[in-house]
Design goal:
globular; alpha/beta; two-stranded antiparallel ribbon
Length: 256
Amino acid sequence: MNSGFGYWAGPKPRILAHRGLVTEDSPVENTLESFAAALEAGADIIETDIQASKDGVAIVFHDADLSRLAGRPESVTDFDYAQLAEIELLGGGRISSLEAVLMAFPAAKFNLDVKSAAAISAVAEVVNRLGCNDRVLITSFSEARRSKTLALLPLKTASSASAALLIAIYVLIALGLSFFVPVCSKRVKALQVPTKAGFLRLDRSRFIRAVHRSGIEIHFWTINEAEEMKRLVSLGADGIVTDRADLAVKTLRKVS
């Protein structure tokens, strides 16, 4: 798939580090330190989340507020980036801008989950200015955020399906209409999914085969147990999104 496009180069199954390396002893999620630890462990791709600060800077942070990671009640949008960068997170580490992260790891690939409307233009501005389209993937649970971000990226950029697109693809496959999948999923080259979503089971070999026939990869999240990693790879998973990139490397590099 896309063998000439840098994002998709490399071996499969792909190991995607969910917010970096996240263990009891690892650095705080979504920090420069957690990303460095994941890459050191052998992760292929860093999966991360993008919010926007009050002054419109794309920041690497999952939550809309600071309560879980900094013990503060404020929203990230209450602060300019310079102020956010001064806040020490519980357990150590600080909030970084997307630009700082991309520049700190110039050879690394990133999945960027656009978490808010304000982050759309902020993400696009950084990616366009740095010219790093070939090493980022744009995703979001929101189809509006995903499609609007891609619309601001004129250069070829990888993308995975939103929640709405996933449901559409699942229904088409279930109805035996998988030949319509490429029509409704333009610019989508990956499904990044849990093993099940409500009553939908996404870890079935028939579904995975149909996704592959449509020229789309399938990555499962968030998988932290070795046996489950091996089971999904045996079914045809192209990637595993995990907190334990270290465990995934030890497990999947042996069975792939």
